[in-house]
Amino acid sequence: MVAEGQTWASRRGSNSRLENDPLIDIPMTPPSGNGKRSTSFVSLLFPFIVSPAPAVLTALIIGGWYFSNIGVLLLNKYLLSVYGYKYPIFLTMLHMVSCALYSSAAVHWLGIVPVQHIVSRKQFFKIAALSAIFCFSVVCGNTSLRYIPVSFNQAIGATTPFFTAIFAFLITCRSESGLVYATLLPVVLGIVLASNSEPLFHLFGFIVCIGSTAGRALKSVVQGIILTSEGEKMNSMNLLLYMAPMAAVMLLPVSIYIEGNVAAITTKKAMEDPTVVLLLLGNATVAYLVNLTNFLVTKHTSALTLQVLGNAKAAVAAVVSVLIFRNPVTVMGMVGFGITILGVVLYSEARKRSPSS
């Protein structure tokens, strides 16, 4: 990654782009525990939140999931390309620090999930490896938002199943049926059409966004391999609790080496324009909410529901970003995005009906 000049360039009206998953996209794994239900601090204080009408609660959680996922994308885009905060690695590190602090409060204080501990040095290094892959994916995603629109970013991100199938075959030798692989063709075709017709296409932004998507897929496959034994399984909230501080420690020296004395630059900017403090704090908080709501949606619905919502989220985020940032779109680009989403839906259906070998 090439560092740019260490100046604060405010480019209002720019149309660059970045990824996100989120921020932070951690697949669910079953929680461990002895089966006893503990009374959490939050349930004592807010019993009306813990046990409202199930349908209302589920709707609120799904709404929060959409808000946080799309919100972090738009805030990342605004900070990195419109406001002119040109430090995606440091921004990702702030996300990790935020996730570490909020996760600690959620697990240890609010008792959202039972506390799970790292049981061995081997498990520690496994989680560290996941953190490294996670860092790569998120940094690439955030970097891409500086150069390409959110809509194009989401179109590329929709190709995650393609990379997941590739890594699953290369690493675990797990093959799918011919029908499953056939459904990946429209996924690739759609992104080719969208790329060829993207008015704001940027080669470097495209490459790092592909890297982010591949990294996210690789993390899912690797997580399924290295945390499979009963003694090592963790739910996503506890996994985030350990991954986030590791990721922050990994990102700090990289940020200093590539982006320079960004902490001093940020402090100076905050003294001149206090708005940046609110933007960074809000951005980091929403980045954690992505993970929290991801966990809650899966808990109150299912992993399949989350996958379906994710497909719809990409389209919603693309439309919202176009309305806000006014980046130009073409009919062929929209057709390509639509073909990719259709391919992802077909891929999900084919996998449900065709066991892997």
What does this structure look like?
With 357 residues, the chain is mainly alpha-helical. It has a domain at 41-176 and 200-300. The protein is 71% helix and 0% strand. It contains 14 helices and no strands. It has helices spanning 41-45, 47-50, 54-82, 88-109, 121-144, 150-157, 160-172, 178-196, 203-226, 236-259, 262-272, 275-300, 303-325, 331-353. Helix 5 (121-144) runs antiparallel to helix 9. The protein starts with 40 loop residues before the first helix and ends with a helix. Mean pLDDT is 84; it is low at 1-50.
What's this, in brief?
Residues 59-348 form the Sugar phosphate transporter domain. It comes from Zostera marina (Eelgrass). The chain has 357 residues and is mainly α.
Counting helices, strands and paired strands, the structural category is: mainly alpha
List the secondary-structure elements in sequence, H or E: HHHHHHHHHHHHHH
- The general outline is globular
Helix content: over 70%
Average pLDDT rating = 84
CA gyration radius, whole angstroms? 20 Å
Number of helices: 14
E-strand count: 0
Largest sheet: none
